[in-house]
């Protein structure tokens, strides 16, 4: 009898177990009610993150066509033929003329013509057009009299004996011997695509185009307004394929 009495005192009765289960179930119902929306929507931040990553990749691809060369860096080894952009974009790019060299501690004063000395053994020259020169698709040049615009080779070939007339508006092809050029900003605008309700799927990725136009800043309204000329500032606004994220960027040419 004594042993049986101790067993009943140390164990749980059926009623106690049922009461405990009911209490636990009650609290579980409360927790699910409080957090069900959070649980259901827990994938939303992840979806936004993926959309943001995709859209940033699209804009990075567009920017890579606008500025295909790295910016100049101090105390960096360069080889002949390396191409860079000044840190402060000046409508030029520069080609390393030395076989090998190391840039200086501070950025040089970039020259439009002739060679720019950089450090003790590095020399740069603006990447101007040259006659009778082979060019590959995607190569850039600037006119021998720089006008702030870059021109992209769209048909590979060898340039002519005399320099073509460089346009500062539109995206019409400029014939130069066996080469065809297009003004970079005009070409970029056409490649991005027109603003409409169509999901674009091209060289830059999948996205919607909300804005793709040439603009100028209006001091009176403090806004960017569409302009017919000059075509030196391109406003691009794109939206993610799922329609929840947007990005806006300005691409400019530093006209003289």
Descriptive account of the structure:
The protein is α+β, with helices and mostly antiparallel strands and 256 residues long. It has a domain at 77-126. Helix content is 27%, strand content 29%. It contains four helices and 17 strands. It has helices spanning 2-10, 14-40, 44-66, 184-192, and strands at residues 77-79, 83-84, 94-96, 100-102, 115-118, 122-126, 134-135, 140-141, 151-155, 157-158, 174-176, 179-183, 200-202, 205-218, 223-226, 233-239, 246-252. The strands form five sheets. Strands 13, 14, 15, 16 and 17 form a five-stranded antiparallel β-sheet that branches. Strand 14 (205-218) and strand 15 form a beta hairpin. Mean pLDDT is 87; it is low at 1-8.
Helix/strand/pairing category: alpha+beta
**Helix/strand order, N-terminal first:** HHHEEEEEEEEEEEEHEEEEE
Looking at the structure, what is the overall shape?
A: elongated
* Stretches with pLDDT under 50, minimum 5 residues: 1-8
Mean pLDDT: 87
Structure in a nutshell:
By secondary structure, this protein is of the alpha+beta class. It contains four helices and 17 strands. Strands 13, 14, 15, 16 and 17 form a five-stranded antiparallel sheet that branches. A four-stranded antiparallel sheet has the order 2-3-6-5, with no helix packed on it. A four-stranded antiparallel sheet has the order 8-9-12-11.
What are the defining features of this structure?
single chain; 256 residues; four-stranded antiparallel sheet; 29% strand; elongated
Layout of helices and strands, plus pairs?
Layout: H1 2-10, H2 14-40, H3 44-66, E1 77-79, E2 83-84, E3 94-96, E4 100-102, E5 115-118, E6 122-126, E7 134-135, E8 140-141, E9 151-155, E10 157-158, E11 174-176, E12 179-183, H4 184-192, E13 200-202, E14 205-218, E15 223-226, E16 233-239, E17 246-252
Antiparallel strand pairs: 1-4, 2-3, 3-6, 5-6, 7-10, 8-9, 9-12, 11-12, 13-14, 14-15, 14-16, 16-17
């Amino acid at each position: 009898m004594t042993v049986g009495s101790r067993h009943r005192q140390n164990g749980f009765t059926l009623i106690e177990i049922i009461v405990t289960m009911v209490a636990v179930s009650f609290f579980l119902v409360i927790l699910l009610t409080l957090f069900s929306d959070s649980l259901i929507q827990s994938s939303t931040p992840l979806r936004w993150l993926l959309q943001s990553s995709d859209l940033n990749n699209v804009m990075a691809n567009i920017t890579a066509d606008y500025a295909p060369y790295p910016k100049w860096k101090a105390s960096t080894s360069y080889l002949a033929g390396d191409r860079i952009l000044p840190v402060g974009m000046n409508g030029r790019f520069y080609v390393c003329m030395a076989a090998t060299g190391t840039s200086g501690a501070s950025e040089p004063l970039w020259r439009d013509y002739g060679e720019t000395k950089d450090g003790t053994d590095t020399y740069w020259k603006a990447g101007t057009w040259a006659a009778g020169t082979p060019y590959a698709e995607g190569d850039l040049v600037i006119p021998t009299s720089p006008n702030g615009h870059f021109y992209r080779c769209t048909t590979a070939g060898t340039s002519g004996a005399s320099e073509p007339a460089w346009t500062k508006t539109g995206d019409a092809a400029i014939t130069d011997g066996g080469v065809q050029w297009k003004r970079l900003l005009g070409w970029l605008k056409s490649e991005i695509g027109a603003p409409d309700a169509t999901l674009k799927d091209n060289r830059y990725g999948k996205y919607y185009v909300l804005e793709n136009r040439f603009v100028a800043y209006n001091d009176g309204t403090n806004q960017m307004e569409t302009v017919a000329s000059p075509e030196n500032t391109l406003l691009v606004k794109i939206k993610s394929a799922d329609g929840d994220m947007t990005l806006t960027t300005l691409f400019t040419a530093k006209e003289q």
